[in-house]
Structure formats: structure tokens, C-alpha cells
Design goal:
The protein has about 160 residues and is of the alpha/beta class. The chain has a single domain, classed as Lumazine/riboflavin synthase (Rossmann fold, 3-Layer(aba) Sandwich). The strands form 2 sheets. It has a 4-stranded parallel β-sheet with strand order 2-1-3-4, sandwiched between helices. It has a two-stranded antiparallel sheet with strand order 5-6. α1 crosses α5 and α2 packs parallel to α3. The relative contact order is 0.23.
Length: about 160
């Protein structure tokens, strides 16, 4: 018996996606957003099939994402943000809960929610991942969404 493999081939698709991007740490989130949109375009997602929702910070990403799923017909959501540890406990109260709530939304709506939220120790580390020497994690989030949607389509699920 042959094993069925559902490997995405990155053919262009006609689907609607949402990007929910945090405005906090905008010097990081703006290049993440630009990298994400540029990559979606490179994957031949049409501009009219991309909706962008700006929210105050990473803490608000799960709530906005849930509202997007309830009010829009989108195949998936890419979330972008930056939570930088700094000198306060803020990081501990935002990063973990944000990740777990976004993961729960993906399961609740049975659609991909891509975690493009940087969780770094320093601003320098975040900038390296927002188009710097470690690439652009926003662009990687777009690729991750595309792969996820292709697998779901190929598997018929």
C-alpha cells in the first residue's frame, strides 16, 4: 500500500487572507508587514484578496483575529507583532497568552492562524528577524499560510 503524501507545490491559489498586525513596536512590525505582503504577492495572492487589520499591540491580536473570522470569509489569518522582553514583566503577560490564544483560535475555526509574532530578548534581535540578517519572519509567515492552505486543499480537508 502506497503512502499518500500531501506536499504543497506552491501553485498560486485564489483565496482571501487577513493580516492582523500590531502597531506597538512599529519599527519592527512595519517591515514584518511589508515582507508579508510582498511575499503574498510573490505567491500570486491578489491585493483585493488581502485584508489588513491594525491593532494596538500583540495582546489584542487574538481578539481581533477572532472577530475577523466571525465577520469575514477568509481562508486564514497571519498575525504579526513584536513582544520584546525589556525590563518589565510585560513580556510574560503578553507573549505566552498571545501564542496560546491564537493557537486556540486556529483549532476553534479549523483554519490556519499563523503566528508571526516575534518574541525576543532585545530590539536588536527583533530587527534582525524583521528584514535584517535573519530574514523577514513576516515573509516566512506568508509562506507558512500558503503551505498550510495548499495541504488542506490537496488533502480535501
Amino acid at each position: 500500500m502506497a503512502i499518500k503524501s500531501f506536499q504543497p507545490d506552491l501553485n498560486p491559489q485564489e483565496y482571501k487572507v487577513a493580516i492582523v498586525v500590531s502597531q506597538f513596536n512599529e519599527m519592527v512590525t512595519k517591515p514584518l508587514y511589508e515582507g508579508c505582503v510582498n511575499q503574498l504577492r510573490a505567491l500570486q495572492v491578489q491585493d483585493e484578496n488581502i485584508e489588513v487589520f491594525h491593532c494596538p499591540g500583540a495582546f489584542e491580536l487574538p481578539m481581533i483575529t477572532k472577530r475577523v473570522f466571525k465577520s469575514r470569509s477568509v481562508a486564514g489569518v497571519i498575525t504579526l507583532g513584536a513582544v520584546i522582553r525589556g525590563d518589565t514583566a510585560h513580556f510574560d503577560y503578553v507573549a505566552g497568552p498571545c501564542a496560546s490564544q491564537l493557537s486556540a483560535l486556529s483549532v476553534e475555526f479549523a483554519k490556519p492562524v499563523i503566528f508571526g509574532v516575534l518574541t525576543t530578548e532585545t530590539l536588536e534581535q527583533a530587527l534582525h528577524r524583521a528584514g535584517g540578517k535573519y530574514g523577514n519572519k513576516g515573509a516566512e509567515a506568508a509562506i507558512t499560510l500558503h503551505h498550510s492552505l495548499r495541504v488542506l486543499e490537496l488533502a480535501g480537508i
